[in-house]
Specification:
There is one protein chain. This protein has helices at about 15-30, 50-60, 75-90, 100-105, 125-135, 175-185, 200-210, 240-245, 250-260, 265-270; strands at about 5, 35-40, 70, 90-95, 140, 145-150, 155-160, 165-170, 190-195, 220, 225, 285. It is α/β, with parallel strands linked by helices. The strands form 4 sheets. Strands 3-2-1-9-10 form a 5-stranded parallel sheet. It has a 3-stranded antiparallel sheet with strand order 4-5-8. It is elongated and about 65 Å long. It starts with a strand and ends in a 17-residue tail after the last strand. Mean pLDDT is about 95; it is low at about 290-300. Bound molecules: glutamic acid (GLU).
């Protein structure tokens, strides 16, 4: 059964920009008769209490989701199985490069800046055993394409770079790109709505899905929220979380609905005016309300 999802990383509080993306993911799913799933991406950078706070915020916004919440930390064997499958097809190799080595490596003719130059792709067995005595290896995907095209509801057809992505980090943690692909496929997610900071990751993920025998999802990469200086909105920008805004009498749902040109006081009501073809492509600039009152507040630093 088809589904959309929201997949926050419990590394801190969600701000209005994240909540806006969550609402959009919900609207995309519900307006197309899909299930809506909640997945906690807790393989990395977990802050104690953040998951609970995020889920409380999403519920308070009026969002609901289907089935149990899935946590990536509980699905390690699925990621290992996917790596085994790729390894059996000759598509996995150990990589011993440090970040600095990757940064300083001369880029190969076909590799665009920022992509892995392939340093460890064709090491001999002897070289591998020498290097593995020095540091633990990450595992990388042996790709056979340079780029891949995805279909995006906001960006249309988008072609982006595919390089030898990390599948398992050298500390043994499954890499984000692998986990997201395995989970979306296993959960029946065929519609991925998320911030457009992940647009350039989508071609890699769609390619990886194809290698694992899955049909890639359709995507909608939605514009992020920016602060007054045009940078990505962050917690340090002041009152940007639901609790801090509501303490100032601001309804977060009304604020977000207004930014999207939608009418209604509940997510379900917003559905009637939601039209994915009329989504703003420009980022949303959010200027937090000034601190009118310092009662109970610890200052404006956030
Ligand atoms: N966990 C990722 C994040 O919070 C989102 C991953 C995704 O939607 O594919 O940025």
């Amino acid at each position: 059964m088809s589904a959309g999802r929201f997949a926050p990383s419990p590394s801190g509080d969600l701000h209005v920009g994240n909540l806006r993306t969550a609402l959009l993911a919900w609207l995309f799913a519900r307006s197309t008769g899909r299930r809506f799933l909640m997945r906690v991406e807790d393989l990395d950078r977990v802050r104690p209490g953040a998951e609970q706070q995020q889920l409380d915020d999403l519920r308070a916004l009026g969002l609901d989701w289907d089935g149990e919440i899935v946590r990536q930390s509980e699905r390690q064997s699925m990621y290992a199985d996917a790596i085994d499958l790729l390894a059996a097809a000759g598509r996995v190799y150990p990589c011993f490069c440090t970040r600095r080595e990757i940064r300083d490596a001369p880029s190969a003719p076909h590799t665009p800046p920022g992509s892995y130059p392939g340093t460890c792709r064709d090491l001999t067995d002897a070289e591998r055993s020498t290097r593995s005595a020095e540091r633990p290896a990450a595992l990388r995907l042996r790709t056979d394409v340079d780029q891949w095209t995805i279909t995006d509801a906001v960006y249309g057809s988008f072609t982006g770079t595919v390089d030898d992505v990390v599948l398992r980090r050298n500390d043994g943690v499954p890499a984000y790109n692998l986990a997201v692909v395995v989970d979306d496929a296993a959960q029946g997610v065929d519609q991925v709505v998320r911030g457009d900071d992940l647009l350039t990751s989508a071609p890699r993920q769609a390619y990886l899905a194809t290698l694992l025998g899955h049909e890639p999802p359709t995507y909608a990469h939605v514009a992020l929220a920016l602060n007054a200086s045009g940078q990505r909105l962050a917690k340090r920008d002041g009152a940007v979380t639901r609790t801090r805004l509501e303490a100032r009498g601001v309804s977060v749902l009304a604020l977000i609905a207004d930014s999207l040109g939608l009418v209604g006081t509940t997510p379900a009501e917003l559905l009637s005016t939601f039209d994915p073809d009329r989504l703003p492509r420009e980022p949303w600039t959010f200027i937090p309300p000034a601190q009118l009152s310092r009662r109970g507040a610890r200052g404006s630093g956030g």
